[in-house]
Amino acid sequence: MLENLLSERKTIFVESCLAQAFFVFVTGGTEACLLAVMAYDRYVAISFPLLYGQVMNTQLCVGLVCVSWGLAFVDALINILPAVNLDFCEDKTIPHFSCELSSLFPLSCSATSTNFTLLLCSSVLHFFGTLVMIVSSYTRIVSTIMKVSSTMGRSKAFSTCSSHLTTVILFYCSGFISYLLPTSGSPLEMIFSLQYSMITPMLNPLIYSLKNKEVKAAVRRMLRKYFYPLM
């Protein structure tokens, strides 16, 4: 990456590009699965708080993480292996900041209709499948919260889901716009890809840590120090 940033002519081998696309698939698919797992975790914590430790035990958590990585790995192989057999024309420019199959297929000299269909079907099944699980979990969470009589209890229950819900919205909205809309070469496509591939993962630690009282206090002190004296 440092070499490409410093050099005027940025080139990459087809094999390296496909390897990069593979890891993009694996990490993105794993994150989608883990977001679904975390939605189920919130459902168990809110709906069955007394049984949470028994249900979400270490063995189940390790199993869910392994399944998430495994599904993403299989999804990546399903898309990358057929792409290895494609012939790519020389001296072509990838209209993207990284090697993603949706940007790589138009540069192929071979027929890519089957590859495009496979990419669309696998992406829809993987991402819509995990989204359905997330929506199902939150539907049950809302149903449970609405049964709570006190306003403070409802507010506290909703606040436990706010960090996860923010991450889900950022990840899925930018991902769906990037992958499901037709490729037009617009700069907005790169912005949305940058959003779900880099910005959202970078924001995750901040989003989740803001639930921590010590982190909140540190942020307030920093804001007072840098902004209040200017007022």
UniProtKB/TrEMBL annotation:
SUPFAM superfamilies with a match to the protein in the record: Family A G protein-coupled receptor-like
Q: Name one Pfam family in it.
A: 7tm_4
- UniProt keyword Cell membrane present: yes
Q: Which GO terms describe its cellular component?
A: plasma membrane
Alphabetical UniProt keywords: Cell membrane, G-protein coupled receptor, Membrane, Olfaction, Receptor, Sensory transduction, Transducer, Transmembrane, Transmembrane helix
InterPro entries assigned to the protein according to its UniProt record, in alphabetical order: GPCR_Rhodpsn, GPCR_Rhodpsn_7TM, Olfact_rcpt
Q: Which Gene3D superfamilies match?
A: Rhodopsin 7-helix transmembrane proteins (1.20.1070.10)
Q: Which domain of life is it from?
A: Eukaryota
Q: Tell me the ranges covered by the G-protein coupled receptors family 1 profile domain, including all copies.
A: 1-208
Which positions, given as ranges, span the membrane?
20-40, 60-81, 116-136, 157-181, 193-210
Biological function: Possible taste receptor.
**Membership in a protein family:** Belongs to the G-protein coupled receptor 1 family.
The name of this protein is Olfactory receptor
